[in-house]
Amino acid sequence: MKLNRTLFFAAIIGLMIGCKKDPKAKDQVDQTAEKQEQEGETATQKFDYVVEQFADLKILRYQIPGWENLTLKEQKLVYYLTQAGLSGRDIMWDQNYRYNLTIRKALEKIYTTYEGDKNAADWKAFETYLKRVWFSNGIHHHYSNDKIKPEFSKDYFSSLLAATGVEFSKEVYEVIFNDKEAKKVNQSRGVDNVALSAVNFYGQGVTNDDVTSFYAKKKSPDATKPLSFGLNSQLVKENGELKERIYKSGGLYGAAIDEIIKWLEKAQGVAENKAQGDALGLLIQYYKTGDLQIWDDYNVAWTAATEGNIDYINSFIEVYNDPLGYRGSYETVVQIKDFDMSKKMSVLSENAQWFEDNSPLMDAHKKDSVVGVSYKVVAVAGEAGDASPSTPIGVNLPNANWIRAAVGSKSVSLGNIIEAYSNAGGSGRLKEFVNDKEEFELEEKYGQLADKLHTALHEVIGHASGQLNPGVGETKETLKNYASTMEEGRADLVGLYYLMDPKLQELGLVEDWEKTGKAAYDGYIRNGLMTQLIRLNLGDEVEEAHMRNRQWVSGWAFEQGKKDNVIEKVTREGKTYFNINDYTKLREIFGRLLRETQRIKSEGDYKAAEALVEGYGVKVDQAIHAEVLKRNEQFTSAPYSGFVNPVLVPETNEKGEITKINVTQPKDFVSQMLEYSKNYNFLPEVN
User: Which residues contact 294 (CB under 8 A, 6 or more apart)?
Assistant: First the structure.
């Protein structure tokens, strides 16, 4: 049959481009689901993507396309890398909260040994609580950071403990039910963020001032290549003195790290090429020593190792879980490259300098040479730590500004994860929140392509764009607790600015740049000012970095355009909508905000960052929030999704040599979580 060219292009891009590091990509999922509801199931849905749904969560599964095309050596490499990743799984649990491993192991023992009534409402509530804890790698919600509240009583829990012989200290028992350490990451203004965050990056009694003063004394051997101080350690007080506990073999988390090293050494033995093998060797040395100079050497080597079919992310990387942005959460993603799809989007990388030269940034803040921006589409073969069960769908690494400037970076889109989201079904929220038929039709025809192009621009151009002024420290030091949301907002703004540029059509990426841009702007404003609020409880402030950036970008743009009615707030039949009246002027507003956001980063202007984020990104309009929640009640699809991983099962001969590796799917979420706890249990409850 004939294939409409626009839809064909959208389909291609849809397989290629993920969303920001934000793992939810809700607009994209909802728009696809809306189409599925109208059109019915397609042939691509024969694979059962949906595992189950509970609380506010949906569990999905994904396939590994191209697995059968890999050589046995390549399959071994993938297997060893996934085993290395899973070996560090419990590190993430302990990083998230000091009692998480104790609580998880107790809950799992109750679940597997209880012989009482499993049809009772209280038991069902216990099951749901355990699943929510599994999903979040701990007792704090993976997105809101709030402590997950059990929907069973203390008395019932006590009866479960007695029936199964599980013992708890009084302190750990109480922490499940009380309001202490209620936020995993507290980003509020005017408080001691470290002291009020439950995340286990800092010992008891450590404060904001302790952290900043401790690292202010650290000096890198080369000031132009600042080391990532604090990335791989816990900062504690011992006898009143601050001390780092380094994550390394023989150090903190050493037992799990030794397992990671074992599998990485196996992976190095089947590396596809010398560059890949050398990078793995440096990662192994980093895990053995904890030396941050080796970490930088590794990142340089890893960034330059672009040949081969297999790639990976492994170690302590993203700093979103640290209220001050120093410490990296453990994560791993193992990837199989999709060279055909990546080649189609290499046009963005090839034109990175054009985008930099034509941006609205001050000339002093533009890079003379945008180096080594690579963008590839990959199929995920396994994830662990901070990337699982809630996964990113687009990643840009490394994070060090100087490496990005001097060597470049790798941007990847997790194509099979996006495919799973797109085929998992959902709700009809789109019709409920669009202002009119025109907005709906633009979203239907151009929305998915617009959202995915925004992601590509965000990752490839946005994160690679701009430079710091000479002498200005790293962003985590200058912008502190606002660093993450400012960086994500800056990259979003780069994408927004160029989504209404005819250059995209000139490059062959769209057939109608104006309509694609309009759909992108409609979706961003709708999400930033309204629909993302479905993820919050009424009365909550916005905490998560990506949600904050979407709100402060949208809120600032709305206010700046009031004089000319650029974005109109419409009330109809008691419902609120936001309608864009002038897309050209909105682009100019985004350009001004991009220029200012880059200035803030380049100059390290903490006060301006604070004013922007606190003024527009934190507080929620309670009337609109209540309305959005009410309007959303009609939809049953959970607002958050995550994944079980495929299981790689090796076959061996009589000599114990691997002869084949099969890809299977887990039975369900519960069985995979219990299997992981059994097979990758390398840490004690208290570390």
Answer: 282, 285, 286
- If DSSP codes are grouped into helix, strand and coil, which group holds residue 79? helix
Other beta carbons within 10 Å of 360: 18
Residues 6+ apart with CB under 8 A from 436: 577, 579
Per the structure, how many domains does the chain have?
Answer: 2
In a domain, 415, yes or no: yes
> Residue 262 domain-assigned?
no
- The secondary structure of 380-411 as a DSSP string is EEEEEETTSSS--SEEEE---HHHHHHT-EEE
pTM assigned to the model: 0.78
The structure tokens listed for 466 are 């701009």
Domain containing 151 equals: 72-185+646-679
Asked if 329 and 91 count as a contact pair (C-beta separation under 8 A), the reply is no
- Other C-beta atoms closer than 10 Å to the C-beta of 5 total 9
Residue 16 sits in the same domain as residue 134: no
Residues 522, 434, single domain; the answer is: yes
Q: Across the beta sheet with 57-60, what order do the strands follow?
A: 50-54, 57-60, 640-643
Backbone angles phi, psi at 328, to 5 degrees: -90, 135
In a domain, 545, yes or no: yes
In a domain, 279, yes or no: no
Q: Exposed (0-12), middle (13-18) or buried (19+): which is 189, by Cβ within 10 Å? A: exposed
Mean pLDDT (whole number) for 165-182 = 95
Indicate if 586 and 656 belong to the same structural domain. Answer: no
3-state helix, strand, coil in the chain (%, to 5): 50, 15, 35
pLDDT band at 425 (very low <50, low <70, confident <90, very high): low
- Alpha-carbon distances of 440 from 235, 337, 371, rounded to whole Å: 51, 35, 39
Rounded to an integer, what distance in angstroms lies between the CA atom of residue 570 and that of residue 679? 55
108 and 52 in a common domain: no
pLDDT in tens, 616-670: 999 999 999 999 999 999 887 788 899 999 999 999 999 999 999 999 999 999 9
13-43 b/e with 16+ CB inside 10 Å = b? Answer: bbbbbbbbbbbbbbbbbbbbbbbbeeeeeee
**Segment 102-111, tens digit of pLDDT:** 999 999 999 9
